[in-house]
């Protein structure tokens, strides 16, 4: 490919709930590139889609009802730092070794709203055409990027575990143009061919946010949430998960497997010092926090609570002087593969909703959204 070969990339940013990836095999869909001909055999152009949501058609059920927020209702939740060019796209070979990067010429959000848009179009160029089998890696909003990657040597795992792949978290954390959520995605492309003068579509890359969204609300008349706090969280996080080299590693179509089957923590452990942070209250009375991944399940076990597990503390206006501890565990109606009392980790790209629904002592219903279409209701009660 010539140095001025243009690559057009369509980016769909989705929710903290997820998106379906279409595997790209063989040539995929091709269409003529306006204003180009086939007189330049090295003029190869490519497009692909990057998504964080919209899994309609892949699972039973439907989009969760009620106040479910797919990110477009929350300013900056889908944001990419366009002004500072805080995004990178790389090609790796089928063995996860670095091939090349391309220079982004422009990135345009759908509807010209870079704070809420789920769709972006990127135009870029590269001086090296990918082979028939390769992988596309997309990064956004990282605090820094590797200064040098060596073709044929640097691996995806090294990219995801490098010092540059860590971000610092401090409370209060309020999303803004200066504080956006780091993102990562990867897609395998197999048996691809490129036709001069034609735009070849590679399919969809799914981006994972590096943080989880936790929401607490009280929908029952007579109870008013006054304060919500998180006890224990990590002050650093990893922008990308470890061991994720293909869409098949994190999009599996089932609750137990999506998105990643393990948390990826700096140095492999939670912070030693316990910390407390307050949730941010919204205008409609909900409490929301964005937090890095946190291990609540004891390492090496499937269902034992870690000694340093995180928990929430909630207070109600109608119960002065009382504070209720809420654990990240299933009190009843757990998903398949889990049992009552099992704790669960706080994982990247998940949306955890805790809804109070009882009129005497508060009783919470937990809704966990690993995908837009999945609504799980393990409920549990709070003791006075």
Structure description:
The chain has 384 residues and is an all-beta fold. The protein folds into 2 domains: 5-209, no CATH class; 211-258 and 269-381, Sandwich (Immunoglobulin-like), CATH 2.60.40.2630. It has 1 helix and 23 strands. It has one helix spanning 156-161; strands spanning 5-12, 24-25, 30-32, 45-51, 87-93, 98-101, 103-109, 119-126, 134-140, 166-168, 183-190, 198-209, 211-218, 225-231, 236-238, 276-278, 280-281, 287-292, 311-316, 324-327, 351-356, 363-369, 379-381. The strands form 4 sheets. Strands 1, 2, 3, 4, 5, 6, 7, 8, 9, 11 and 12 form an 11-stranded mixed sheet that branches. The longest helix has 6 residues, at 156-161. The model is unreliable at 1-28, 34-41, 54-70 and 370-384 (pLDDT under 50).
Short description:
With 384 residues, this protein is an all-beta fold. Helix content is 2%, strand content 34%.
């Amino acid at each position: 490919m010539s140095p001025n070969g243009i690559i057009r990339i369509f980016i769909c940013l989705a929710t903290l709930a997820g998106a379906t990836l279409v595997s790209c095999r063989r040539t995929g869909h091709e269409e003529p590139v306006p204003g180009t001909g086939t007189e330049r055999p090295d003029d190869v152009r490519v497009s692909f889609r990057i998504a964080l949501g919209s899994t309609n058609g892949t699972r039973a059920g439907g989009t969760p009802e009620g106040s479910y927020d797919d990110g477009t209702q929350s300013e900056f939740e889908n944001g990419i730092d366009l002004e500072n060019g805080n995004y990178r796209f790389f090609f790796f070979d089928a063995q996860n070794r670095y091939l090349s990067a391309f220079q982004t010429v422009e990135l345009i959000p759908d509807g010209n709203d870079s704070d809420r848009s789920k769709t972006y179009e990127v135009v870029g160029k590269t001086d090296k055409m990918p082979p028939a089998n390769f992988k596309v890696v997309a990064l956004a909003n990282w605090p820094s990027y590797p200064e040098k990657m060596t073709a044929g040597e640097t691996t995806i795992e090294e990219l995801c575990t490098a010092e540059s792949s860590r971000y610092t978290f401090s409370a209060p954390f309020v999303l803004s143009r200066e504080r956006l959520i780091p993102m990562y995605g990867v897609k395998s492309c197999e048996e691809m061919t490129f036709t001069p003068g034609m735009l070849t579509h590679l399919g969809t890359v799914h981006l994972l946010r590096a943080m989880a969204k936790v929401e607490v609300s009280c929908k029952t008349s007579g109870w008013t949430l006054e304060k919500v706090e998180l006890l224990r969280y990590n002050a650093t996080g990893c922008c990308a998960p470890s061991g994720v080299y293909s869409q098949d590693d994190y999009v599996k179509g089932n609750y137990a497997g999506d998105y990643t089957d393990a948390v990826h923590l700096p140095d492999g452990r939670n912070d030693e010092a316990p910390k407390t942070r307050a949730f941010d209250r919204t205008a409609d009375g909900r409490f929301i926090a964005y937090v890095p991944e946190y291990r609540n399940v004891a390492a090496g076990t499937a269902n034992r609570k870690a000694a340093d597990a995180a928990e929430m503390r909630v207070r109600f206006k109608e119960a002065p002087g009382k504070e209720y501890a809420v654990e990240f565990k299933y009190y009843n109606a757990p998903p398949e593969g889990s049992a009552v009392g099992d704790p669960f980790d706080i994982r990247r790209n998940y949306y955890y909703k805790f809804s109070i629904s009882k009129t005497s002592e508060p009783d919470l219903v937990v809704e966990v959204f690993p995908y837009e279409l999945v609504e799980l209701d393990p409920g549990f009660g709070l003791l006075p």
